[in-house]
Amino acid sequence: MKPDPAIAEYKDVIDKLKPIYGQPDFDQMMDTIAGNIPKPKKFLIKMELNRLAAPCSRRIDLRGHVDGNVRDFTHGGTTHYLDDVAIRIFNRGLKTYGSYAQGTYEDIMNADNNYRVMHHRQNKERLKSSAPESNIDSSELTKYQAKPVMFGERGFRLEERMIYAMPINVEIPLAGKIAASTTDLSVSGCKIKLPSSYKVMPGQTIGIEYKGLEEEYELGLKKPVEYEVVGLDNKGGNLYARCKRTNNIDTPTFDAFLNRFINGNKRRYKLNLDNTIEAVVTKGYEQFYLPRVTSLPVFLKPREDGALEPVATLTNDNNRGIIRQWIDENNKPRLGYLFGPKRMAALMRKPGRVKETIIYGFTHVAKGRVYFYSATDEELNLKPELRNVFLGFGSAKSVWFIYKIALIDCHKELANLPLTLPDSASREAQKLNKPPSARVMQYLEPIQHVAFITDISSEIARETYNKIEFDMAKVAQLKVFAHHKNSPPPHIEELMIKFVNLRSETRFIYRTTIEATGNQFSQAAVTRDFSTKGMQLEFENPIEVSKEEILELTMPDLQKITSRYKLKGLPYEVVSFNKEKTIVNLRVYEERGIVHQGKSFMNELIEKNRAKLKAAAQAGAGLPGLAEALRNIIAQRTLNTAIYIHKNGIKHTVDTLGFANVPNPLLDILNDEDSGDTYNLYPLLCNNYLNTLFVATLRKMQRHSRPIQQDVYIKYRKDAPSLSDKFEVQLVDDFRNEAAQKIFVQKSLQPNVLFFALRIYTSRTGRPDTDFIAKELAYVSQYAIHKAKVLEEELWSVAGVVDLIDISQEVMSRFGFPVKLINQQMQKRQTN
């Protein structure tokens, strides 16, 4: 926290008073040291000293944040990660305050060797020494550039194309016959090189005489072969025209010759592998991202009355938690409650192709039954007298959530993403290039929309909503937002995206009562999922628990079905928990020589009931090929933005951006207007965020860790002359307090400014899913093994994936800005 600006000039006085604050003669010493300071200022100084001396419990982790060697440093039972500079400050703080205090924490975080501090200092020096130039130099621009990867782009070719240069004559209407040459060749197309002085246009028909081939072979051609120009490229003063055969005239002899010629010479002259290489890269990046995306896609179809209803969802380890929040006391998933007919009709009436809203919700448990409540932002605005009641009461519940839901159109044709290999490459390629089965296409026929649900809850947001004052007498009126148990929602088929699952064992979704006892609590809980080696528990109220603490679990309901195992007082070790300490991950705690009764029982339970239990990693049960088809659809309709963290040796880079070809306001502001097809990650990498935001986060994570979330606010001025003027960026964790956050947002809502609040979810990756791209890699290796190795190295270097979610609407609504102003801001980005 930054010191109060009103007393910034008295920093030296405060430093002198720190060691004596709290001593009996403090007031006398203060009068001596600060005798001529006005009384109001003295009061503020006292308040500041009181704040600085307050005990601090925050754990400090400087890994990746400072220029120094970080090591373990334990104090008061808490292990910090500090460098030599920080340890000196810490010990000095103990002498000054007598304990670990808030002032010590702030001094460590503001040390001179902190990357953030160094960056701010460098910025000040640069501003002082720079002339009145407003533009960043070219090196500053290029170091933030990112190459785009458009998901779903395959560049499929019907046949192999061989790199082959030979002389030809080209007949161009009104221009006559021109000497030219081919650069590559296939049976149904070619690419030709022309002098740039000759102009051809896409869609134009031309004729080609293969004079180079006719000198050596009998082609049986009486007229030039007719082609249509489909695309043009300018390189090095030459014009390259991509052409396809019109087939207006049958030339079976020539076609058969070209087929034999290419098959016989493709190893000698090499094949044009450009499209296959691009597709391998795209597929590889897709398969890193889609199994880790935090949004849950739900596919919808219209009912007979026209209302949309959900039919299927595609899950992974990072988004399945949303479904778990909707499991009732009978272990039935009730996610379909979210998609009520009136709610979906209101969403469909919103303007634009992508239709978004925010949904707030909570669960209430009474007499062993789980009741679900939810409301959109618009629904709460229609009942203003209940808005504060819902948000204040709901945010205090153990299961409280905020979802962003975004709806976009889709159609069954998106399900067909064939290999990039032509059918002629092999029989297997021909087989794999076939579209989905008739049964799958029939299933997809009515699906017209996909809704992406993202859990954007955070502890910071919960604290804000918890401060809302409301009338408890009105809580009973919240039943208008309750989902009635006598009207069950439509069934949603759950499928799992297929990928290389590196987990050691399968987890199963099941709710049963557990009695848990720890060092400082004894409370009932319910399981969210379990395996032979551990489980995840959900508590109604927060518990006092710490990592590596051993809990004793009793399983009363499960004890009823076994007399062989004693399910009482079973030791489980705490692995992790959420910030609210209501959801806890446990693993079996095994003492040497003692058989763990819980592990043995769970192993037997799973083996005997595997067909009945629902695996958390169950993939595509039911219709074969359906999960793959849905995966292809979301690859081309995902509304989030992905960025990739590469690690080569000890160096990390962030220079690759993944997205689908759909409306995306964030991409619009990242787009490099000068080049049109490149993007600049300046707002995500400035301020040394590569190290402090991404690399430091990755170092804290294991491969199976849940994504770590962080928020960043961006103020964007489109007409500013340079990147540093266009973007003002600040991490939410770096704001002094909530009021400072609100001021930043308020200043970003000016007429010529756009506000973006981004949720950043960082996941650590494992090895690439090479099975998914094996056919293309093998094909590239066959003709250019060096290129295949480069591709593999690029994909193996991916160390992390970042999922970027726009949470601007929720943030503006949380801080109480008028609905009209929020709507204006959201509409402005559509016309940016």
TrEMBL record:
Pfam assignment, any one: PilZ
GO molecular function per UniProt: cyclic-di-GMP binding
Domain PilZ: 157-251
Protein name according to UniProt: PilZ domain-containing protein
Organism, as annotated: Saccharobesus litoralis
